[in-house]
Every structure is written in structure tokens, then in C-alpha cells.
User: What shape does this take?
Amino acid sequence: MTKRLYTGFSFFEFINMLFLRLACVFGLIFTLPHYDENPVLIIIVSAICLLLMFFLGDDQIIVYEDRVTQITNSFSSLIFKSKGKTIKMNEIKYAHLQSLPKSSPSEIGVAILLAAVLPKGNIDRDKARPIFFELKNGDTLKFDTNLESNKMKKIVEIVNSLTQQTASNN
Assistant: This one.
């Protein structure tokens, strides 16, 4: 059994999934007493609520001494014993995050102007950002995740330090 070094998870995403599951439970509680009024619709709504409760989950990235694993914490992953995505540490050359594009001062000015004029929205909260793993065989694997950027940076730092240690030991 290898030692777990770091677990990256989003508390916001966990709470969000918890509220969505609770909404599905309330949806079931609300619809089931009305079964006699419209059985077909109630069965469809109940099935959707049950499926959402079963498959909704937040993701975690766990860094072990010898591997990196991405799992989804959902009821389906517990029942089916899902292992998630796993990359062995000896296969990784290095890890990195997506580089942000460079902007000129005029582009920044236009972005500020548009942000001031357009309605406010939730900026990139629901958009998954990847962690890239460059493998020794030349392939690139990515884990799409909703983790905060500081947790993603921590994962990249740990993985890169471990890959450097294994490279120096060989």
C-alpha cells in the first residue's frame, strides 16, 4: 500500500453537489404524492431525480507516492467500485497547467470596457480546467477538474517533485 501524499478536492463543488442531491430528494418527495394525477410524468421526473442522485458527484485528485488518481465521489462510483483515471508516477515526465495567453494593453482595455458594459455573470465557475501530464512515451494525458487553481498548482508541484526524484534515482 502506497502512502497518500495529497488529496485535492473542491469544498465548493462538494457543497454544490450536496445541494443538487438534496434538490433531487425534495423533487422525489414533492412528486410522488401526485402520482395519481399524472403517472407518466411523475415516473419520468422521479427517474430523472434518481439518476441525477446516483450519478452526480464531485471530483478529487489524489497524489500517491507511485501514482496520480482522479475519482468522482458519486453513489455510482461507490456501487460499481470505480477506480477513476490513474497514471503511474514512473510514466510521467512532468505535469503542468494550461498556460494563460498574453494580452496587449489594448486588449486589456477592451476587456475592461466589455466587463463594465455587459451584464455580470459567473465567470468560469462551471468550466473545468485541465491538469496536463506529459508522459515519457510522448503522449499527453489530462485530468479535467473543477479544483481551485491553488490546489491544481499544489498537485503539479508534488507530481513534478516526485518525477524528479524518480528520475534522479534511475
About this structure: The first helix runs from residue 11 to 31. The chain has one domain: 4-169. Residues 3 and 64 are 6 Å apart (CA to CA). The chain is about 45% helix and 25% strand.
